[in-house]
C-alpha cells in the first residue's frame, strides 16, 4: 500500500505527519483527524522530565481542543510497529484507523 493509493484525506494526514517530523528533526511525526475533520499534528517529546510519543501529543492536542472522537491517525517513524500506548490513546477516542508510515511516506500497516 502506498500513500497515493489511500483516500485523499488519509494521504493528507500522512503528509502532515511527515512534514512535522522533518520540520522538527524528530524520531516521530503524527497527525490525527477528529470527528469534525480538524487535523492536529505533533512530534514526539523527549525531555528529561517528559517523554511522549507523537501520537500521544497529537491525541492530547485534539482532546484539549474539544475533540470527542477520531476518524484517522497517522504515525511516521522508522519503527516497524506502533507502540501499545499509541494504540491505546487512539482507542480511547473510538475505533479510528492508524496508518503507520515510513519517513518516505510508504505505508507499512493499518491498525485498529
TrEMBL record:
InterPro entries: Cytidine_deaminase-like
Gene Ontology molecular function: catalytic activity
Name this polypeptide is given: Cytidine deaminase
Species annotation: Sphaerisporangium album
Lineage: Bacteria, Bacillati, Actinomycetota, Actinomycetes, Streptosporangiales
Amino acid at each position: 500500500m502506498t500513500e497515493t493509493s489511500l483516500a485523499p484525506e488519509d494521504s493528507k494526514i500522512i503528509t502532515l505527519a511527515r512534514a512535522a517530523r522533518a520540520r522538527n528533526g524528530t524520531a516521530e511525526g503524527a497527525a490525527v483527524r477528529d470527528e469534525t475533520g480538524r487535523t492536529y499534528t505533533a512530534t514526539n517529546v523527549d525531555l528529561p522530565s517528559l517523554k511522549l510519543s507523537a501520537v500521544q501529543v497529537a491525541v492530547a492536542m485534539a482532546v484539549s481542543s474539544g475533540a470527542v472522537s477520531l476518524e484517522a491517525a497517522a504515525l511516521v517513524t522508522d519503527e516497524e510497529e506502533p507502540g501499545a500506548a499509541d494504540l491505546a490513546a487512539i482507542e480511547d477516542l473510538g475505533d479510528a484507523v492508524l496508518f503507520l508510515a515510513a519517513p518516505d511516506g510508504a505505508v507499512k500497516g493499518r491498525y485498529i
